[in-house]
Write a structure and sequence with these properties.
Blueprint (H helix, E strand, L loop, with lengths): L16 E3 L7 E3 L3 H9 L12 H4 L2 H16 L18
Antiparallel strand pairs: 1-2
């Protein structure tokens, strides 16, 4: 399995707000602008498989295999791919 099979789309940055009953319903941002700037600065290099994020990209094959195996188990199927499925991989960091 090759991590080059992962595709990516251009993403726009949005600022989300939430209401809080604790502060009288005022709106407050839930996005840290410093984090947006930090990751925006490395955005153009993010998908370079041999760039500074190479260690993260090296996990893609392992992660894809795990996702496939867990999906097969949950859907009670036997398939060697995720084709035809919509998968949301939510990371943290």
């Amino acid at each position: 399995y090759s991590s080059s099979r992962f595709s990516h789309a251009s993403r726009s940055t949005r600022s989300f707000s939430s209401s809080s009953d604790q502060d009288g319903g005022s709106r407050r941002k839930t996005v840290d602008e410093q984090e947006v700037s930090k990751f925006g600065a490395i955005g153009s290099a993010w998908w370079d498989l041999n760039g500074m994020q190479k260690p993260l990209h090296s996990f893609n094959a392992l992660r894809a295999t795990f996702l496939r195996n867990m999906t097969n188990e949950q859907l009670k199927r036997r398939a060697d791919h995720l084709e035809g499925l919509k998968v949301l991989d939510v990371g943290c960091g």
